[in-house]
User: What shape does this take?
Amino acid sequence: MCGRSSGVLQFIVSLFLTTVWLAPVALAGEPLLVKYIGNNTSINEDYYLALISAALKVTESTHGPFKLMYAQEQISSERKHDLLVLGDKVNVDRLVGFPTMNGARKGLIRVGVPILNGFMGYRILLIRNENQPLFSNIKSSDELRKLPMGFGKGWEGHVYKHNGFSVAEALTMPMLLKMLAGKRYYFVPLSAIEIDDHYEIDGALVRSLVPEKSLLIYMPLPVYFYVSPAAPELADRLTLGLNYLSASGLMGKIFTDHFGERLKRLHLADRQLIELSNPDDDGSLGVPDHRRLQLF
Assistant: This one.
């Protein structure tokens, strides 16, 4: 962990000990094992790991030591879910979307503190650079939905379908990129915190695929940590720590440390905003405050 992140965590511990009272618990024994697997090489996990570590650090004086174990492994989301339910190889993960009764969240313990300030719902379009003039003239969702789009299988494609978009769902990110470069569709909407400036196909840089410059899609879309049912003490501790980080503003600081420069480059506040509805929206995020875009 870089020096800046270590300084943030030291500050968190100091502030927490002077402002928050927690019922004491026994500190003796083995450290709490926290097991996290990254299974998507296109996503940087540093923010999520820093947030987990910070939430556990601020509870360390009352709940004892912990050990955060991270591995990068190419496994399917379905297999990862099965492992998460068992809790032996992985016992915490982040999942996108509102909680539903079935699907990927069934049987897991949700830590009910959104962890991305709503920014997973802000989407930039990945396009072929030759089509930038076409997108620069689009001002509404009615105009945008006339163009077929690509999306990853198992992502929130149902939200776009609900809003009338024609969606082709590829199985993998490399396949998605190949189909976009091959003109099978016009765009792929990717989160503002995840979209990259450049992409590779089969190890070669593809300069024709670029982030679109004028549009910004928004949909209500939270991200939560989910914990294995075999580790309820981890869920309780993360809930306590994340609530403190959120209320104190420290979660926002960690977010800015990791994503601030990326979001500034995207000029989010200067884009034409297109809002979509999410059929899963339970109202828990409240009314979006797009003034937060001015911070970047």
Q: What stands out?
A: Residues 3-118+221-248 form a domain with the D-Maltodextrin-Binding Protein; domain 2 fold (CATH 3.40.190.10). The longest helix spans residues 3-19. The CA atoms of residues 98 and 282 lie 7 Å apart.
